[in-house]
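## retry 2 of 3
previous attempt timed out at serialization; input unchanged, resubmitting
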Amino acid sequence: MGTRGAAAAAMAQALVPPETRKFTRALSKPGTAAELRQSVSEAVRGSVFVAKPKLIEPIDYENVIVQKKTQILNDALREMLLFPYDDFQTTLLKRQGRYICSTVPENAEKEAQSLFVTECIKTYNSDWHVVNYKYEDYSGEFRQLPNKGTKSEKLPVHVYEVDEEADKDEDAASLGSQKGGITKQGWLYKGNMNSAISVTMRSFKRRFFHLIQLGDGSYNLNFYKDEKISKEPKGSIFLDSCMGVVQNNKVKRFAFELKMQDKSSYLLAADCELEMEEWITTLNKILQLNFEAAMQEKRNGESHEDDEQSKMESSLSSIDSYFPEISKSSRDAEIKFKSESRVKLFVLDPDAQKLDFSGIELEVKPFEEKFGKRILVKCNDLSFNLQSCVAENEEGPTTNVEPFFVTLSLFDIKNNRKISADFHVDLNHVSVRHMISNATQQLMNASGDYLHRTQDIIHESILHYPKQVIFSVTCPHPDIFLVARIEKVLQGSVTHCAEPYMKSSDSSKVAQKVLKNAKQACQRLGQYRMPFAWAARTLFKDASGTLDKNARFSALYRQDSSKLSNEDMLKLLADFRKPEKMAKLPVILGNLDITIDDVSPDFSNYVNSSYIPMKQFENSTKTVVTFEVEEFVPCIPKHSQPFTIYNNHLYVYPKHLKYDSQKSFAKARNIAVCIEFKDSDEEDSQPLKCIYGRPGGPVFTRNAFANVLHHHQNPEFYDEIKIELPTQLHGKHHLFFTFYHVSCDNSSKGSTKKKDVIETQVGYSWLPLLKDGRVVTNEQHIPVSANLPSGYLSYQELGIGKHSGPEIKWVDGGKPLLKISTHLVSTVYTQDQHLHNFFEYCQKTESGAQALGTDLVKYLKSLHAMEGHVVIAFLPTILNQLFRVLTRTTQEEVTVNVTRVIIHIVAQCHEEGLDSYLRSYVKYAYKAEPYIASEYKTVHEELTKSMTTILKPSADFLTSNKLLKYSWFFFEVLIKSMAQHLIENAKIKLLRNQRFPASFHHAVETFVNMLMPHITQKYRDNPEASKNANHSLAVFIKRCFTFMDRGFVFKQINNYISCFAPGDPKTLFEFKFEFLRVVCNHEHYIPLNLPMPFGKGRIQRYQDLQLDYSLTDEFCKNHFLVGLLLREVGNALQEFRDIRQIAISVLKNLMIKHSFDDRYASRSHQARIATLYLPVFGLLLENVQRINVKDVSPFPVNPSSSSAKDEPLSMPAANPLVTPQKSSNTLDNSLHKDLFGVISGIASPYTSSTPNVNCVRHADSRGSLISTDSGNSFPERHSDKNNSLDKNQHCSTLGSSVVRSGKFDQTEIKSLLMCFLHILKSMSDDALFTYWNKASTSELMDFFTITEVCLHQFQYMGKRYIASFNKVYGSSPFLPGNQEGLGPIVHDRKSQTLPVSRNRTGMMHARLQQLSSLDNSLTFNHM
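## retry succeeded, writing output
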């Protein structure tokens, strides 16, 4: 072992404490290896001093581009040096809704007085504010480029010599016919062989082909009608006359063409691509053998000449005579193939072929209405067994003998609640509808003008008798029922009225009697309804929302007058699947025909719950309108969504009236409740026309009646009254209830006067709608008054029997006799007290009241108690107001508390999995407040300052952790605020260093410095928060290049990098390279690095400049980003394997991106980019011993064997103590003769002079303290490193003095070599010659050593080896023509990099290379 090897072993022993080794050996607990490695690496860092690399100050970018303006503008590639002028812009996108008009009423903004209502309306009326970055598509990974350079087609299929040789042996051993030649058979499609007739798809005939070798060694391709090849063939193709086999897909897929000497051709086609390639390969082999035989015969007939050039010319002349028609264009064809058919080098890289969606962000869409499972319900018919003709003259159809009315709604028995509003439908025949007088209908509906906001859009008449409805269910499951409640005109008790319908006998007398009574009731009591029956059916088969279309409605059950409430209905439905329970219910004989179906995406002609039509609406009197019914979505965050439309509905439910103890009225039994909505308590005030009407009447009415129960003093109700609330509510708005005793007795006895008294008032009640500024909801118990004085709303109990306001006579002593409940569905009013109070206080201060910081802080803190669903529902409105307060306050405490509330809201959205709403808000809804320097501040500056305060060590750590974890939101707000500020205030026209004030620059720098300790120190305790903050900071810094002084941004990157050091834990290296990856993916990364000469004086030519081939301070300063990246990669190469792989991956992916970027597609662009990466040469030369394939080859070499095809794959034992050394005396001023031998393909790359070729194997020994992945080897440094390429310094920026690294593994080597080859391929010839001229001898030798390694790493191993490899390792290495991956190496003296082309030109050229004994050099650009 050499001196350095001994020193390495000694150092390893010195660094390893004995007790650690014992612990390692004794370790048996699984899953702790990573912990052990971490602790060991920390022990090394603690015991050995690691020098921190010094920071290189970046150039003042803005001053440089001004100073070098002339040089830049005169540069032919100036687009690579300048940012485009139209880099970003703000646009206003029209809000796209599904409605034909705005959902906000015309005068709503004028009527609105409340700040909260006003801001909500602004939210729903505003368009989207978007910042567009023109080149944003280029700001991601290479896989996200808009026109990725990867070709989808495969590489050309070649036959390689190593495969040809193996196939020969196989054929000789097992296959063949008379002479053991090549044979193949199978079905093909044969095209018409007459060249005068064009070949079409129909001219192909399926034939069985058999390839056979004749006695003279020639080949025939016979074809038959079937597989019986013993018979005479239908025809033959003589392959001696074949000139070439080429693929031809013009007429048929998987077709190939055999070109003959007489210029005719045979067109054949296979069933699949694989078969086609096999036939082409086999036929090419035969042509190759024919060619070689002909050449051999020529050679035997010619005299041998020593002059190699004469030999070449002789070969060429013989080829000319053998193939006269193609010799002329052979070289032209080769040149064209190399220039046009070559794919990009990185296309062959396996990483470029991997599908990786990790970096692809989901598309952010604007806020939109979202619905659950939508169900279309069609109401077809309701028919009872009791039927007759209702016309007076008994001419007409047979129908039900009285009108019935159906109400549909959804009930969820799993969650025990009603989940939809009611839908009313009138299925009566026209003649039956006429039984109710028009006068009664007008009285019932208080008809008048149609005062809805859609009156000019749709005809009111088409809304009168709806029969189709759309329900929406957010959480579908099998326990949701569609319930139909059936009502009829008030007549008497439910039991009495239902009795005729429950008899099976179809008696016309019974029908006539019922009809007679019904006509009288309709004339007299047509406006009053009574409960009659109900039915139900299931909706879903499962929880995924599959509709149960086969289910039908149950029998029609008679309504029990004592079980009317929704709670009673839920109990009945709970027993719905229990036949023994349902059998006890009385059944009414009849049938309800209602069908359900899915709603198609293109469904048209429907209106929403506010009767606003969709865009796809046909405004015609014949249009069948479908109505959407409001869903009562559960009030939980995960089912909530930000409101996008104006909606302001109040649902009122009279529940129960207790009148059995009242003494105020003599008769109060058949009690009807009339509901009205009023805005005044004056004596002559009229109710508002805002109650949604029933079928057949006006759309809106002034009152509504609940169902009447016959002879009930304590009636229950299930009615739902839907009210369209005014935009602005005030203290006088109230619900008004009037109670009537309805006389059902229409006996002929008594006077006519008594008959006319149908209803008698028996009380009044009212409920003010607002309490503490909020709409009253949920269940309320209110008293009933016997009289109605003017100003009744002002009545107020003062206690001890005293009151204020008018005198009121209370029924039953003022007890709360009426129970009602209300349900608010509004997008402009909130039920949350904390949110209401906050907006109310903001309105007071905006109107001129003195704003007290302590009061505002109190209201801000209370916002933390907001309900989650309220936060989501009003998200844009709340955030807009908070950002407004942020810019208008003058107190830091208020600013910090505003930010704390925003952090709380953002965290709540994330915890509920609703962060997509935040992304939509930032991208579309957020709009910076107008900037007035004397009055307001900017969001980006104030938010930056407040976040800095929250991140102070003394601040609340829970809040700071949330800020770190969800920091992306705040950085995105900063970015958008900055963009809008620049454009709207015309700052974009200023120089970069004048766009933002010094205070903002200071705020950003302070924030970055405050954030860094949280990233570098909290990664263990809070890994997710640190990781997110690191990534978000990188995105922010990257975008700052678009807006700010770029030199200032460079300094922030330096501030970031200064917080890291060599020997950091792996997590911190991941953070650092993730940061660099994101920043370097900036769409204008190339201009940021200024790929231009920085020499003094005037430079006439680009090639005259002093190029940097190593990381000098000057290079890192002038080309800051690429210099920093390469420095960090260089440092990382001295770290453990995992860290090295991260760094190499970032570098390679960035270079792949440059290669695929269509903006830099030309060779001159790529050559200019290559100048930025020339220092990679220096990095590789520094590590040349670690990438030398001779030292790390995992496969044995057998120089004495001419072929490795029969050698088993074996893995030699690891010997971590042996490190092969490269003898310095083997270096010479001239290039090594073996190197040229390898390049020319003559000499074996492995000679006996190379020591220890097989003795070292890559070992994944990660327990080692010195080397985590191989033997304890040290990278060597040659004695003459201080050479002309390192005039200023040699890697002085690489600060690590401790070696924690060994040999690179195969993946690392191949990635580095791919980068090397790409630079070599892209750089200009002048740059390469300059490098060769100025490099020292040792560097030149190392350079060609690396090129030699490239030959070995990327050489093709042969199909036989691949098959053996698969048996051993179960995976396939790299195949030519297949971009699946780059495989390991194999050593064979046969040329394995030169393919035998399918066409004759390429075949001749390949053979001529073999015939020649000249030292032909292999170009590095061959790939």
